[in-house]
Each structure stands twice: as C-alpha cells, then as structure tokens.
Amino acid sequence: MELLFAFLLLAGLFAIYDVIRRMNQNIVTQVDQNQQIIELLNEWKRKQRR
C-alpha cells in the first residue's frame, strides 16, 4: 500500500512539473513572437517616415 501511495505521489509531482514546463515553454514562445512583431512594426514605421 505504501508503494502505491509513493508511486501516485511521484506521478502527481511529475504531472505538475510537466504542466509547469509546458506553460513556461508557451510563455517563452509568445515572448519571442511579440519581439518579432515589435521589430516588424519598427521597420514598418521607419519605412513610412521615408
């Protein structure tokens, strides 16, 4: 019984770790995309001034 409890606890901790890892990866991807959009907008603004 103790072995089952330890296994379930370990599986639960791994599931929480995996969810946090995926959320972090999504945030990093969104930040990169936002930076690319900002760079494109800045280039567009420079071209509009000419």
**Which stretches of 5+ consecutive residues score pLDDT under 50?**
none
Based on secondary structure, the structural category is mainly alpha
Number of helices: 1
Q: Which descriptor suits the 3D outline? A: rod-shaped
Distance between the termini: 75 Å
What amount of the residues lies in strands? under 5%
Largest sheet: none
Mean pLDDT across the residues is: 96
Q: How many E-type strands? A: 0
The percent of residues in helical segments reads over 70%
Evaluate the radius of gyration.
22 Å
Q: What string, H for helix and E for strand, traces the elements in order?
A: H
Structure explained in plain terms:
The chain is mostly helical. The protein is built from 1 helix and no strands. It has one helix at residues 2-49. The protein is rod-shaped, with a radius of gyration of 22 Å.
Key structural traits:
50 residues
Write the layout of secondary structure elements.
Layout: H1 2-49
In short:
The chain is mainly alpha-helical and 50 residues long. It has one helix at 2-49.
